[in-house]
Amino acid sequence: MSRLAEPRIDERPPSGAEHEAMMLASGLTPKAAAPEGFRGVAALWARDRDMLVGQGVALELHRRAEARPHLAPAGWEGPIGLIELLGVIPEYREIGLEERIVRSLCTLFRIRVPCRDALIWVGEARAPVLLSTLDALGPDPRDRWLR
């Protein structure tokens, strides 16, 4: 496979047809709305030249949402987030695009939901991640060891 370009990540939404093609290529199924109790914080799309190759959405759970006690440990006072509709065309997973999107969404979450820490559920696996842990790891110097 030839060397892929480093995709550009931004908040510019794609056209409907472009978005549907990327969702299909990355294996995502469309969703009509955010899960109950969540509100949108950020949406990012990644493009290689003019081709849409990845996406992700960050959501925040309302502080009084019914799901809150089920999504955080007892006594958790910080925000709860969800990274949803995370999808990357397979060829671009190899160059770390999925992680770049997650990190970018977490950065936007921290800026738009000012907090010292947050519990964020990531992707279809619903893996819980503390924002402070992600920050402590910093940029991904170990990334090449995990591929």
Which sequence of strands runs across the widest sheet?
1-2-3-4-5-6
Low-pLDDT residue spans: 142-147
Mean pLDDT: 86
- The level of helicity is 25-40%
How large is the share of residues in beta strands?
25-35%
Looking at the structure, what is the overall shape?
globular
Please provide a written account of the structure.
The chain is 31% helix and 29% strand. The protein contains six helices and six strands; from the N terminus they run βαββαβααββαα. It is α+β, with helices and mostly antiparallel strands. The chain has helices at 16-26, 68-71, 90-93, 97-112, 131-137, 143-146; strands at 8-10, 38-48, 51-61, 80-88, 119-122, 127-130.
Question: What's the quick description here?
Answer:
This protein is α+β, with helices and mostly antiparallel strands and 147 residues long.
Supply database-style keywords:
alpha+beta; 147 residues; single chain; disordered C terminus; globular; 31% helix; 6 helices; six-stranded mixed beta sheet
Please describe the topology of this protein:
Blueprint: E1 8-10, H1 16-26, E2 38-48, E3 51-61, H2 68-71, E4 80-88, H3 90-93, H4 97-112, E5 119-122, E6 127-130, H5 131-137, H6 143-146
Parallel strand pairs: 4-5
Antiparallel strand pairs: 1-2, 2-3, 3-4, 5-6
